[in-house]
């Protein structure tokens, strides 16, 4: 174990032991069963000083802690001090498990392809658990921050509304605007590469367009294209055009002089050199723009809906429900948008790996 792992093990054990003692001496009854079992396991982890202690045992203790703090919460009112120590102990055991798992994968003791997903999964679960425990245990008003359980209940009870908003914002405005903006940026980059005159004239214009504030552009697009999704798609086009333009132009210049000279010795023309050398060399740059735009497009469409939209859409729902103090619905829309944006980004990454598998940046990923 590394020095950090030793420190985490000591902290996790100390928090468990302190919570167990506090629950034993300060309460009229023992802590709830699940919490008591977790604290006993955490305290018993001190046996690691005698020798080998599997990283999976730390994972089991962390999992028991997650279950304990969630299951025990309804039985504790008001929430005692030992509960917060138990929550910190569960977090410390989860951190210790992730740290040991990461080092085990790096050294080849654990197969990354099978267990690599556990690291982000555990991190996300612990964030949600701490969020749930703090908001419910400290009685945080739902207007300030609702617990994840309330957000999930809202998602489960409003699937038809969320689906309609998703269709309006993502399937229409985002995807269409993304395709048009990226396609237009790519086409203009080819034209700029072909003509030095256009390079001197269009690049400064593209830079100017990218500097336009979205809160100033969105109302204008609404007046030009109406209140429905075309005006939001127009905003997305403006936001995605310049990143694609700049990255494509930079990528087209990435091919080395030796490779270009080789193509000339083969008597290759401009379009042959472009298709067989320069575009493949520019592929990592182009996919960087596509990944950046996959998040910019969703942000642009949602913000644009704040300035005029039909009675449907993610941005419309967020702005409306905030005014009604339905913060759980706002967070439900945020969760759907985050999932959609992450999935969109992931699809672009998968396409990149399938297309540019030969590039060193992909081979080493």
Automatic annotation (TrEMBL):
PROSITE patterns: ABC_TM1. CDD domains: TM_PBP2. The keyword Transport applies. Keywords: Cell membrane, Membrane, Transmembrane, Transmembrane helix, Transport. SUPFAM superfamilies: MetI-like. The chain crosses the membrane at residues 7-27, 33-50, 55-73, 79-98, 110-131, 170-192, 204-227, 233-255, 296-318, 330-351. It is found in: Cell membrane. The keyword tRNA-binding does not apply. Residues 167-352 form the ABC transmembrane type-1 domain. It comes from the Bacteria. This is ABC transporter permease.
